[in-house]
Write a structure and sequence with these properties.
This protein is of the alpha/beta class. 57% of the residues lie in helices and 12% in strands. Helix 1 (11-21) packs across helix 6 and helix 4 (81-100) packs parallel to helix 5 (117-131).
């Protein structure tokens, strides 16, 4: 059986790839995600993944968490931030996999219909060849819903946004605007009636 390092963005996204690869590969999950903001969210996702790996008997490795690495890399180029984000994570996964003697690496990011699939594949192949390790491409997307359903059944924490501060802002932009409008409106009212 070959050794496969699976870069893992979070527990729920790992469930489906694990289910289809576990009989063919000896899998290690590698949690390396300096993009995740804030640190409490990072920990919550890690704990969820650790719980799943423990019950499924999967070896889990955890990389360093330094959000500055991500923030510095995307600063000034936030509109193209996903490319940088993928690149940081895949580079570290490939480096780790090559150093530790894995046969190949892949990423759970390939399960999300919200990610840039072709770009992930292109970067995975380029980065893999740089480190001399094979990037395994799978289109996990058909299993996205099933994986999320299974994660729900297992009572796993399922995050409401992709991960970075920008995606968190986008996720709550409407709510933030509504709240700010309401508070500003209340303030105006109390000035005119007070
Ligand atoms: S939206 Fe997601 S993939 Fe894109 S930069 Fe943010 S965390 Fe990374």
């Amino acid at each position: 059986m070959k050794d496969l390092l699976v870069h893992t963005c979070c527990g729920p996204c790992f469930v489906y790839p694990h289910s289809i690869l576990k009989d063919t590969y000896r899998i290690t999950s590698y949690y390396f995600n300096p993009n995740i903001h804030p640190s409490m969210e990072y920990m919550r996702r890690l704990e969820t993944l650790a719980g799943f790996c423990s019950s499924a008997g999967v070896d889990l490795r955890v990389g360093e968490y330094d959000p500055q690495v991500y923030l510095r890399a995307v600063a000034g180029n936030e509109n193209d931030r996903c490319r940088t984000c993928y690149s940081i994570r895949l580079n570290e996964a490939a480096r780790f996999a090559a150093e530790k003697g894995y046969d190949a690496f892949t990423t759970t990011l390939l399960i999300s219909p919200y990610q840039k699939h072709e770009l992930l594949n292109q970067l995975g192949v380029e980065i893999g060849s740089h480190y001399g390790i094979e990037f395994k491409y799978w289109d996990f997307r058909p299993g996205f819903r099933a994986g999320q359903e299974r994660a729900k059944e297992l009572d796993m924490y399922r995050q409401p946004y992709c991960g970075c501060i920008y995606s968190e802002l986008e996720r709550y932009a409407k709510k933030l605007n509504t709240t700010m409008d309401a508070v500003r409106g209340n303030n105006r009212e109390s000035r005119t009636t007070g």
